[in-house]
Design a protein that fits this description.
Blueprint (H helix, E strand, L loop, with lengths): L3 H7 L13 H7 L6 E4 L6 H11 L5 E4 L4 H5 L12 E2 L2 H4 L3 H14 L4 E4 L2 H8 L1 E2 L12 E5 L4 E4 L9 H4 L3 E4 L4 H7 L5 E4 L6 H10 L2 E4 L5 H5 L3 H27 L8 H13 L4 E4 L4 E4 L22 E7 L1 E3 L2 E2 L2 E7 L4 H19 L1 E3 L8 H9 L10 E3 L8 E6 L15 E4 L2 E4 L3 E4 L2 E7 L4 E6 L17 H18 L5 H10 L4
Parallel strand pairs: 1-2, 4-9, 7-8, 9-10
Antiparallel strand pairs: 3-5, 4-6, 6-7, 11-14, 12-13, 13-16, 14-15, 17-24, 18-19, 20-23, 21-22, 23-24
Helix pairs in contact: 3-10, 12-13, 14-15
């Protein structure tokens, strides 16, 4: 849903039929009555997905065919080269745990499930497990590799050896390093009838085929790193809080500049984005942005994942909305924050929709819920006041956040219609809180903070907000707010000022004092 409107503007309808993602499986079901061959690349589809396809077409005229060569690869002659960044260590003072301790926890788990080896292919899980990072993926400090974890002994790491040359002496105590191309060869050498664990949601169907062809028993087990990675330890939590304060200073400096210093007629989406990045780069422990900044003015704000280009770049005008969604990768944490501001004066509809989004944001921020709840059980709270006027937003309310890792991390999230396999919210998890409203071709609104899942009594949990930046009071319609909601905003703004003011210059501090005064 995040891209439904955007795709209409960016994709040629003469070549593509545009459908909502939720129609994908329905469309495939329609092929059952036709005699068709459905071809796919087994390295690009999960075991779960292929199993579902096989089930759909089992008693139909259709058949599945696995391609030896992807036709897109054949015609795409100018593909980017395989990334070749160098791996580096994620220091224990930021990671909060030794690599050997993490390996032992995983080995204990796979032993319990009578597994001899576990095949791990998700890059963020490998980075977390081995306390290594890299720069193979834009905005996310990952390194391309695979890992096979035996129930005892050293972990088998498959990677281009030149990528790890600087840290090999630091990790060879607990890792055997193999060339990336020897991955299949290693699996072939594992004794027949040994049991190998695979996550069928995360692993490509190709892995199932390789293991089966070798005579290995396959045990489907959810990635054992998943919850350990998602539940931040005390060091990671402290790092996340500090990173978000530094990031909040950046956002506040940027908001001051937007509201007081820009020449509106000469400002545009690219210039604003560049200035924001320049501010963020000055922060201690900054590594990179955590994703490409969404710098969206006017009608572009109605596209939840808009990416500005020279061609699309809009110049600012008075009395329109500007939405910016941005974040940073810091050695001690990953950040993601969105603010929506009015450049000039808002109209009544904009104030109404902004305040309804804000009410949903507050509802998530203050909710208390039983332990072992899924995010779907509270998602409706973010939409309630928009639903009252037959409005909604076509994306999740919140996604998980990594620790100097992926800005979108599972299994935790807050969204509608989650399946049985989706993650349970647990103490120590960090998620985003980002309800929105989007009026196609007109404007968009989103308010995003990061929230930490904390204990509230013996059997329940709640959230602690850890992002700090003022919310645009020019867009707030006071008459729509309850006393408790006003109290929350005032308390939040008081903490914004307390946390950030000492890092600002005098003009910025005076401005922050004014915009965080009680409503």
């Amino acid at each position: 849903g995040r891209y439904t409107n955007q795709v209409k503007q960016e994709v040629d309808k003469n070549f593509f039929e545009i459908k909502h993602l939720k129609e994908y499986w329905t469309k495939l079901e329609k092929y059952k009555k036709e005699k068709k061959i459905i071809a796919l690349d087994e390295s690009l589809h999960s075991i779960n997905e292929v199993n579902k396809l096989e089930k759909i077409f089992k008693f139909s005229k259709c058949s599945l065919s696995f391609l030896e060569t992807n036709p897109i690869d054949f015609f795409w002659k100018d593909q980017p080269k395989f990334p070749n960044s160098l791996a580096f260590l994620h220091e224990e003072k930021y990671a909060g745990d030794k690599t050997i301790n993490k390996i032992k926890k995983i080995q204990y788990k796979i032993k319990q499930d009578s597994i001899d080896y576990y095949l791990l292919n998700t890059l963020d899980s490998i980075a977390w497990l081995l306390n290594i990072r890299g720069n193979d993926i834009n905005y996310t400090p990952l390194i391309c590799c695979y890992v096979i974890i035996p129930k005892t002994g050293k972990v088998e790491l498959f990677i281009e050896k030149k990528k790890i040359k600087k840290i090999i002496n630091r990790i060879d105590k607990y890792v055997n390093v193999h060339s990336f191309k020897n991955f299949k060869l290693f699996i072939n050498k594992i004794k027949i009838q040994k049991t190998i664990g695979i996550d069928k949601k995360e692993s490509p169907y190709l892995f199932k085929k390789i293991c089966k062809d070798t005579g290995l028993k396959i045990h489907y087990l959810e990635n054992p790193c998943l919850y350990l990675k998602a539940k931040k330890n005390l060091v990671e939590i402290e790092g996340a809080k500090k990173a978000n304060i530094r990031d909040g200073v950046t956002i506040s400096k940027f908001l001051y500049w937007l509201k007081n210093k820009i020449d509106i007629d000469k400002m545009d989406e690219i210039k604003a984005s560049q200035y924001l990045l320049a501010l963020r780069k000055k922060n201690e422990l900054f590594y990179s942005p955590s994703f490409e900044t969404i710098s969206a003015f006017g009608k572009h704000a109605a596209l939840p994942h808009y990416r500005v280009s020279k061609k699309s770049n809009l110049r600012f005008k008075k009395n329109q909305i500007y939405l910016f969604d941005s974040g940073g990768q810091y050695f001690d944490g990953t950040t993601d924050i969105t603010r929506t501001v009015i450049i000039g004066k808002p109209n009544n509809e904009q104030k109404d929709r902004f305040t309804r989004v804000l009410k949903g944001h507050i509802a998530i921020a203050v909710v208390k819920f039983p332990k072992n709840s899924k995010g779907s059980s509270i998602d409706h709270l973010a939409r309630k006041w928009l639903n009252e006027i037959n409005c909604d937003f076509d994306h999740g309310t919140g996604h998980g956040i990594g620790s100097f890792l992926s800005v979108h991390e599972g299994p935790q999230r807050i969204a509608k219609n989650q399946g049985q396999s989706d993650g349970i919210l647990k103490e120590g998890m960090i998620v985003s809180n980002e309800p929105g409203y989007y009026k196609e071709e007109k404007y968009g609104i989103r308010i995003e903070n990061l929230i930490l899942c904390v204990v509230n009594g013996k059997n329940s949990l709640q959230f602690e907000t850890i992002s700090w930046a003022p919310i645009d009071r020019d867009l707030i319609k006071l008459s729509l707010l309850t006393k408790d909601e006003i109290a929350w905003i005032n308390n939040y703004h008081n903490k914004v000022y307390e946390n950030l003011n000492k890092y600002l210059d005098e003009d910025e501090r005076n401005w922050l004092y004014l915009v965080t005064k009680p409503l």
